[in-house]
């Protein structure tokens, strides 16, 4: 395959023999298997660093669009303060209730919502989970290391 770069110079690029199997790549990048299901790691009740108020709004929007768009991830793993999204910790903000509703929608759409048991115990929330399934680090590690999934951390 020939590709014209800037100016009048032509560059020869190798054909992708795996393209017909759904595997694509760009020069200088890692091979990206678009057919692998995704696992999304959520390690905070906020999205991004900086101001927590906007971070809560961003996380709520992230979960909303995750529930609305395709393809769906195989699972969400909530750990550290991310577990607070799935538990009743006394916070009664509109964003918190909306985030829990989006998690319920994802769960109803077949996405596994896995909530870290150690984190729930640490925050005293184990008996206050309102959405998702309590799971442990051994399960998380086996999923993440299986090679079956692309891992997305937010």
Describe it.
The chain has a single domain (37-153), classed as Hypothetical Protein Ychn, Chain: A, CATH 3.40.1260. It has helices at residues 52-68, 94-108, 117-123, 137-145; strands spanning 2-4, 10-12, 23-24, 32-33, 38-42, 75-78, 112-116, 133-135, 150-153. Helix 1 (52-68) runs parallel beside helix 2 (94-108). The chain is α/β, with parallel strands linked by helices.
Task: Please sum up the structure shown.
The protein is of the alpha/beta class. The protein has one domain: Hypothetical Protein Ychn, Chain: A (3-Layer(aba) Sandwich), CATH 3.40.1260.
| Mean pLDDT value | 87
Count, helices: 4
Structural class: alpha/beta
CATH architecture: 3-Layer(aba) Sandwich
Topology:
Layout lengths: L1 E3 L5 E3 L10 E2 L7 E2 L4 E5 L9 H17 L6 E4 L15 H15 L3 E5 H7 L9 E3 L1 H9 L4 E4 L1
Parallel strand pairs: 5-6, 5-9, 6-7, 7-8
Antiparallel strand pairs: 1-2, 3-4
Helix pairs in contact: 1-2
